[in-house]
Amino acid sequence: MRIHALLLCAMLIVCACGKSSDDPPQKSEEFKVTVYPAEKVQKTKTQKVYVHLMPWFESKETSPDGKWGQHWTMANKNPDIINGSGQREIAAHFYPLTGPYASGDAAIIEYQLLLMKLSGIDGVFIDWPGTTVLYDYPLLVKNTEKLIAKLDKVGLTFAIVYEDQNINHAYDAKVISDKLAAAQQDMAYLSSNYFTKSSYIKLNNKPLLMVFGPQTFTTENEWTNVFNGLSTKPAFFTLWNASSKSGKNATGEFAWVTKPHLADLNNFYGNAYSGVKIASAYPGFKDFYTQGGWGNTLFTIDHNNISTFNATLDLALNSGLESIQLVTWNDYGEGTMLEPTKEFGYGFLTSLQSKLGVNYTQTELELVAKLYEMRKKYPGSAENQKKMDQVFYYLVSNKITEAKALLQEIK
């Protein structure tokens, strides 16, 4: 009996030694992300809806000189000044819900593209500066390419709106000596880097290329020469009433925002132009140029809360045209932004959801905002960031319930 007790005691000692209190705790199982392909958001309207986006915003962290980008500051504003409401001083009459941001920030890109998708938007028309090394143009190209890299995962398409006026700016600054060669270089870059992507918008198998103008090249012969090196010529769209400046090179025209605005829209939709037309809808127009020290105010179109947007969107939807461009996602300098702001909340996007027959509401848009908030709250937590990656894949695949549940778990 005594031997049995001694053996039992020895066994207990061995077991205790094998389970030291100094042993590290077992690690919890690492979270694994399941990738889901993007699915289309269901809507009742069949027209394609695109939104014009400016990739030109920079923060102190992303600017080469460590300063806020000029589109937040213009000539005289300082976002480092914060008012009693916690808002930074920016060169705009309206304030983004996120606060001022960098266009190349991965979290902002995710936020913007998810909001677009869940609002019923099909793709993005990206304002593109060209490849000349002047001002902030190279940064804009980098921001553009960061955004493009995310489009397939979200399930959105894109096309380029070419700022041919920048060729003149570069020439006047003596950065280039040959305008045509610079434009041909831009076209070669677009052809090699963008036009071949599956997410690039095509019209009759031709890449859609828009121009904000034209302003530098204004004859058919000039545009023929600009496109001369391309194996596939683009489906080329100019601003409304400007296709004559490119002659037979033009496939169509796109509407913009001017005053008197409703009259101009009705005239464009009803005129006898035989090319393809792209409609436009916008929330209003209230630029900051005078207050920001960037020249004179252009004109003003009252937003009337969201009534101006509703009126222009209704006109576009009833125009009979196949495509609509929303003007714009984020031009704060001209007050045409549709993304969520302190002043308008989600109003423009929820109205868009309703008029397009999208099943989603502000509730889903707020999930996107929550995801952005969490991205910024836990930048150094790899585990939480993986969970947020999973939330992203849930959202792009319309798994809203799963996205909401997982987002609530993140602490």
Write structural notes for this entry.
There is one protein chain. With 411 residues, the protein is of the alpha/beta class. The protein has a domain at 48-162 and 255-363: Glycosidases (TIM Barrel). 38% of the residues lie in helices and 12% in strands. It has an eight-stranded parallel β-barrel. A two-stranded antiparallel sheet has the order 9-10. Strand 4 and strand 5 (206-211) form a beta hairpin. Helix 10 runs parallel beside helix 11 and helix 13 (382-396) packs antiparallel against helix 14 (400-409). 44% of the residues are buried. The model is unreliable at 1-21 (pLDDT under 50).
Write a compact overview of the structure shown.
The chain has 411 residues and is an alpha/beta fold. 38% of the residues lie in helices and 12% in strands.
Low-confidence stretches: 1-21
Shape: globular
Q: Report the average pLDDT across residues.
A: 95
How would you characterize the largest beta sheet? 8 strands, parallel, barrel
GO molecular function: alpha-mannosidase activity
Membrane topology: Single-pass type II membrane protein
Main location: Golgi
Signal peptide: 1-16
